[in-house]
Specification:
Pfam families: Dimerisation, Methyltransf_2. With about 350 residues, the protein is of the alpha/beta class. It contains 15 helices and ten strands. The structure holds S-adenosylmethionine.
Length: about 350
């Protein structure tokens, strides 16, 4: 065919996206098998890696070279090694490990997303915990192992953002914070480590307390971080100069989002700050695939949850009484919206 207007459009983007789960599954298997953790000890040949990971000869070379082509490994002179990012985030031995997020995608995501079409037709959640109309968290937390896997995954989801928030917000102006729906304490630990003058903690459902205690003890921060149990749907929020809500508002319908923002406003002292962080959708709703797909994830997983733009969050915060909320895109996938009570 000649190069003119009758030339068919490129099919490659469609063909690649339509089977993008191949790449996702390759990465998840690499995490599961410990590829990156093995390579954190040093570069290895194909035969050495095969031996250490217990891989059959047939798929091993394609698997490892696919990881090279996908940008997850380097190969030079027949030796495989981690990239700087996989060495930092996917070595299980490092405190910066986020592989639990990939394992959560495997455990819960694949199954629920297989039912996306049904969710789109019915508007109803499809995950095993929520398909009958249950609250995701209360339903999932009846199974201790499922709860652990989920909360470990949340640490993976939040760690890069937590480091970015610790650097981006003027914490020196405040002395106390509380992470509402703060799970095991991934953000709380990062804030406490980066800002030794801060004390704070996590407010979450009572079932989360032992996992928070384990995580905070591992980081040697029990003297500065506390756990407050409660249900933010039914009770007030504890007080602190800074309240944080990360990946919390997106779990709920608009009415509950507004309720949580009002509760945050009520709990803050004058000049207190609310930090909301989420995988924000761009205001034009046209370019932020991670934010829009996160919103579809809320469709398949929760009863009324959806993600939103920075401008929408600003509008809801203004309604709740906050002063001139501001939106900041952070280096990882999330953005943060900060509102102040009164003027500062
Ligand atoms: C999607 S996770 C986000 C966790 C964490 N903020 C992060 O960004 O990784 C939502 C959190 O809200 C908590 N949560 C859900 N329902 C709650 C409720 N009714 N009261 C208090 N916390 C709740 C969950 O236990 C979970 O830790």
């Amino acid at each position: 065919m000649t190069a003119n207007s009758s030339e068919p459009p490129d099919a490659a983007p469609i063909m690649i996206l339509g089977r993008a789960f191949w790449g996702a599954r390759t990465l998840i298997s690499a995490v599961e098998l410990g590829v990156f953790t093995e390579l954190a000890q040093g570069e290895l040949t194909l035969a050495q890696l095969r031996g250490r990971l217990g891989l059959h000869e047939r798929g091993a070379r394609d698997f490892l070279d696919a990881l090279v082509a996908l940008g997850m490994l380097h190969r030079s002179g027949g030796l495989y090694s981690n990239t700087p990012a996989t060495a930092y985030y996917l070595d299980r031995a490092k405190p910066t490990y986020i592989g639990d997020l990939m394992e959560l995608a495997d455990d819960r995501g694949y199954r629920s997303w297989a039912l996306l079409t049904a969710a789109l037709r019915t508007g109803r959640a499809q995950s095993r915990e929520t398909a009958g109309g249950e609250d995701l968290f209360k339903s999932m937390y009846t199974d201790e192992e499922a709860m652990r896997r989920f909360l470990r995954g949340m640490t993976g989801l939040t760690l890069p953002t937590a480091k970015a928030i610790a650097a981006a917000f003027p914490f020196e102006k405040y002395s106390t914070f509380l992470d509402v729906g703060g799970a095991r304490g991934a953000l709380a630990v990062q804030l406490a480590e980066a800002h030794p003058h801060l004390t704070g903690g996590v407010f979450d459902l009572p079932q989360v307390r032992p996992l928070f205690a384990e995580y905070v003890t591992e980081h040697g921060l029990t003297h500065r971080l506390s756990f407050y149990s409660g249900d933010f749907l039914t009770g007030p929020l504890p007080q602190a100069e800074i309240l944080v809500m990360g990946h919390v508002l997106h779990d709920w319908d608009l009415e509950t989002k507004r309720l949580l923002l009002r509760k945050a406003y009520e709990a803050l002292p004058e000049r207190g700050a609310l930090i909301v962080y989420e995988t924000l959708i761009d205001d034009d709703r046209a370019t932020s695939a991670p934010g829009l797909l996160m919103s579809l994830n809320m469709l398949v997983d929760t009863q009324g949850g959806f993600d939103f733009t920075g401008a929408e969050c600003v509008e809801w915060m203004l309604e709740a009484g906050f002063t001139s909320p501001s939106v900041t895109q952070l280096p990882a996938l999330d953005g943060m919206v900060v509102g102040i009570k009164g003027t500062r």
